[in-house]
Amino acid sequence: MNGVEWREITRQGLWKNNPALVQLLGLCPLLAVTGTVVNALGLGAATMLVLSGSNLCVSLIRNLVTPTIRLPAFVMIIAAFTTCVELLMEALSFELFQILGIFIPLIVTNCVILGRAEGFASRNTPPAALLDGFMMGLGFTVVLVILGGARELLGQGTLFDGMHLLFGEGARGWRLHLLPEDYPGFLLAVLPPGAFIGMGLLIALKNETDRRLLARRRALEGRPVKGSKRVRTTGEIA
Q1: Would you call 159 helix, strand, or coil by DSSP?
Q2: Contact assessment for residue 26 and residue 103, using Cβ atoms and an 8 Å cutoff
Q3: What are residue 177's DSSP bridge partners?
Q4: Is-contact 44 140, C-beta < 8 A?
Q5: What is the pLDDT of residues 205-218, one digit of tens each?
Q6: What pTM does this model have?
Q7: What angle do CA 1, 56, 95 make, to 5 degrees?
Q8: pLDDT tens digits along 60-109
Q9: Buried/exposed 49-62: b ≥16 CB within 10 Å, e otherwise
Q10: First CA to last CA across the chain, in angstroms?
């Protein structure tokens, strides 16, 4: 895998083909648990681990399974990694595991993971598949954290509340009060409609950014190169 492929896979996962903002996959857990940053980060990290591991294993067996059992084999791999992540989170951060609830085992049904296994990992080498899984998971996690941060700030007036659930007791002091302590909170932000509104705003922001970047690129392509001259040819060539 050369540098060009590495950059393209990274760009696809983080921006151009972001699973949350472009593919619009995995929106149910994304909208359900993004009430705070720690919830979003916990689910995002779990999804990223499952996505990276399943992509790698699917790529390793891509030439060993027949088309008739390919999808069942992929689902078994994803289910195995989901179970491992579920047990790991239950052992290391039990309180956060309880908060996230059913959405941890439901990672196995996340369309992002099966889609990348079928659409990319089964057709590419293990290094490329591992990088694709990591970058797609990272792009998904970034959207989760941004949405969770916005909802937590508007709903509670804080950021990084409860980070000790994921990083231990030393993270209790990470909580930031960005709004006055008597801030009453914006109830809509922590309710499901607030998640839909926030997600819509993020998608609109990405689309507008893409539009501006495309317009700038077209303007640069149409601009004559500095130092060059336009030559106009007239007449006929016999």
Answers
A1: strand
A2: no
A3: 158
A4: yes
A5: 999 999 999 999 99
A6: 0.89
A7: 130
A8: 999 999 988 999 999 999 999 999 999 999 999 999 999 998 999 999 98
A9: bbbbbbbbbbbeeb
A10: 51
The first and second tokens of residue 238, run together, are 């016999």
**Residue 85, pLDDT score:** 96
Cα–Cα separations (whole angstroms), residue 149 to 82, 104, 176, 187: 25, 20, 11, 15
Q: How many CA atoms lie within 13 A of 235 on its CB side?
A: 4
User: What DSSP string describes 83-98?
Assistant: HHHHHHHHHH-HHHHH
Neighbour tally for 8: CB within 10 Å = 12
Q: Give the C-alpha separation, 147 to 6, whole Å.
A: 27
**For residue 237, pLDDT beyond 50:** no
Q: What burial class does residue 115 get, using C-beta atoms within 10 Å of its C-beta: 0-12 exposed, 13-18 middle, 19+ buried?
A: middle
Q: What angle do CA 221, 222, 226 make, to 5 degrees?
A: 80
Q: Please report which confidence band the pLDDT of residue 238 belongs to, taking 50, 70 and 90 as the band edges.
A: very low
Q: Give the residue carrying structure tokens 């077209």.
A: 218
Joined together, the tokens standing for residue 209 give 């950014």
Question: What is the distance of C-alpha 125 from the center of its chain?
Answer: 22
DSSP 8-state code for residue 123 = G
pLDDT tens across 115-169, in order? 999 999 999 999 999 999 999 999 999 999 999 999 999 999 999 999 999 999 9
Q: What's the pLDDT at 227?
A: 52
Residues composing the chain: 238
